[in-house]
Amino acid sequence: MSAQNLEVLDHTLQLTHEWINELRDRLDWSSSRDALRLMRTVLTEIRDRIPHEEAAQLSAQMPLLIRGMFFEGWQPAKTPIEDRDADTFRRAVEARLGHVAGYRGEADIAAVFATLANRVSEGELRQVRHALPRAIRAFWPAEMVWAQD
After folding, report:
1. For 61, phi and psi rounded to 5 degrees?
2. What pLDDT, in 10s, does the model give residues 79-110?
3. Rounded to an integer, what distance in angstroms lies between the CA atom of residue 93 and that of residue 88?
4. E-assigned strands of the chain?
């Protein structure tokens, strides 16, 4: 492997840690591992509810490692999921997440949305937000909402 390829890996690892650390701080959790599990879970639930092209555009703004997790296990033929319900989304996150000490439900899901909003361009966030069912858009922190839906 060339030195340049190693620099790419070092850079994506650094960016991934930045995303995880930001979320961990928002959550006020001590475990980076749990923060990553939550991020991965929420991102894949978002992925499964937006059109394929939108998922690809969103992923283009993620560090390589997070992008890989975002697409791992994806079954495009089964998406986008058509459910429109926030409770179904929350339950899907919780079922996939499993037990995480200190998990507070919707507040922690909203922390992932806030981290995403801080790391992805506003234009892309508008597109993702518009692609999500209205009930799931409610997880976006109020200060991140740019226009009435």
Report:
1. -100, 5
2. 999 888 999 999 999 999 999 999 999 999 99
3. 9
4. none
